[in-house]
Inverse folding.
């Protein structure tokens, strides 16, 4: 019994954790090769098991509702290179069995990659990070509404740190994935959309989160005002971090990352970004300097607008010289 037959049998025996698996594994080589870009396939189909391992986990993590690729499959991350096909079966785990098959057998890997594309993996990754950002906001709301409940309480500083971490993860995932292979415009724009969505939500939370609580909160006399306001903490007056603090904690929230992304990934959000800019301006008293997020975002929008609406040399009609006008008139008279 060959590997494909065994894998299909395992699928029937264990369950439908990967619904499209029989189709993937039973596809012929000709079907896999049809309508494919050879250059992209070469990039996304590494020949060595240790290189394939990360990509296989990335593909299989698509079917997991919460875990990111680097969190998925920690229990079967190491596959001995001397494994024989008879040892690929992992009891009670279809995912681990398919992982071993795809890491050790290049043809199985290519069948998976043909269906679970680079775009699908990136889209799933960004969707999970969006869900985590929304969960961070919800956790803060829950803490404010109900008070302390344990070590996982999400107050303003903890929520802010989580959101900064997610911003960094989105940016790093975008860079890593584009370095592996090309991503579609829709997936790249989705990453920018999530960043702007987070930015907008923080701007909408410019308030003392504790002003209506009905539970007693322990407060130190020197508590900074930013610890009560998520907008202040992340945008208006962020803490001054030490030199040993990771860079992603010290960056201007969201804006620094957007500025490092090509404009074609966020230009469809220009109206939303302009609205956020106006919102920050309204929050800032006339006598105060606007926060760095405002200054940087304003410059980013101005630079894009100037470049986008600058007339190209081909669209500018040259004004005829006086000499050429006279020559034209002379020819018409003749």
């Amino acid at each position: 019994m060959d590997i494909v037959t065994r894998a299909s049998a395992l699928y029937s025996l264990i369950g439908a954790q990967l619904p499209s698996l029989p189709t993937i594994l039973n596809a012929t080589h000709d079907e896999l090769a049809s309508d494919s870009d050879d250059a992209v396939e070469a990039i996304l189909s590494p020949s060595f098991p240790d290189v394939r391992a990360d990509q296989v986990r990335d593909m299989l993590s698509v079917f997991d509702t919460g875990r990111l690729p680097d969190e998925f499959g920690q229990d079967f991350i190491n596959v001995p290179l001397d494994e024989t096909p008879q040892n690929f079966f992992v009891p009670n785990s279809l995912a681990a069995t398919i992982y071993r098959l795809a890491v050790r057998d290049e043809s199985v890997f290519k069948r998976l990659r043909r269906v679970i594309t680079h775009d699908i993996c990136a889209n799933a990754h960004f969707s999970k990070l969006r869900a985590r950002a929304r969960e961070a906001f919800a956790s803060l709301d829950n803490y404010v509404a109900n008070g302390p409940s344990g070590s996982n309480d999400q107050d303003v500083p903890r929520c802010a740190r989580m959101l900064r971490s997610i911003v960094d993860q989105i940016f790093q995932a975008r860079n890593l994935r584009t370095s592996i292979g090309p991503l579609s415009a829709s997936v790249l724009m989705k990453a920018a959309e999530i960043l702007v969505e987070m930015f907008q939500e923080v701007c909408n939370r410019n308030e003392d989160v504790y002003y209506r609580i009905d539970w007693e909160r322990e407060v130190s006399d020197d508590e900074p005002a930013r610890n009560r306001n998520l907008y202040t903490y992340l945008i208006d007056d962020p803490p001054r971090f030490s030199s040993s603090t990771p860079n992603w904690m010290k960056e201007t929230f969201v804006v620094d990352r957007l500025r490092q992304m090509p404009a074609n990934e966020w230009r469809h959000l220009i109206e939303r970004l302009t609205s956020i800019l106006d919102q920050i301006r309204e929050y800032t008293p006339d006598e105060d300097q606007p926060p760095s997020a405002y200054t940087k975002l304003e410059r980013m929008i101005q630079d894009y607008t100037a470049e986008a609406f600058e007339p190209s040399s081909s669209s500018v009609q040259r004004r005829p010289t006086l000499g050429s006008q006279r020559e034209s008139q002379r020819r018409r008279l003749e």
In short: The CA atoms of residues 121 and 278 lie 36 Å apart. The two ends are 92 Å apart (CA to CA). Residues 1-43, 313-334 have pLDDT under 50 and may be disordered. Residues 118-146 form the longest helix (29 residues).
